[in-house]
Design brief:
The chain is α+β, with helices and mostly antiparallel strands. It is about 30% helix and about 20% strand.
Length: about 130
């Protein structure tokens, strides 16, 4: 596969997590932190999603925690999901009983196989959707 196409293709979809993180902004950031790890260590987020190495910081969106619980649509306004896919995201969230939260993140990696039934530091895996 042509490397330029492969690079562009990676942004076509995003894996999306939403939910309620109970803790401080610093604790939330530690879940993703890669800077202070020893050689060969990976962050808790990487372990949770099944990576054996660090995630690529160019392909992740970690939105700072909201200071309060906000409605789903406010969370989704921060997500890098194509507008045409938002109804599907809302439907999936409703099925999970998720109508509010304080955290949203996404990661672009078409090769990931995410465990949808697992909690990711209090966040729910919503699915893989077209990115914007």
């Amino acid at each position: 596969m042509n490397e330029e196409y492969r690079y562009a293709d990676r942004f076509n979809t995003v894996h999306l997590w939403l939910g309620m993180f109970v803790g401080t902004q610093e604790e939330y950031e530690r879940y993703f932190g890669q800077d202070d790890l020893n050689e060969g260590e990976i962050c808790p987020f990487c372990r949770d999603i099944g990576l054996n190495a660090e995630y690529d910081e160019d392909y992740i969106g970690i939105i700072p925690l909201s200071a309060r619980t906000v409605p789903l649509d406010e969370l989704l306004s921060e997500a890098a999901v194509d507008a045409d896919a938002l109804d599907a995201v809302r439907q999936k969230c409703r099925a999970l009983g998720l109508c509010e939260g304080n955290a949203v993140l996404w990661y672009s990696d078409p090769e990931l196989n995410i465990d949808a039934g697992k909690s990711y530091n209090g966040l729910h895996y919503i699915g893989e959707f077209p990115g914007d």
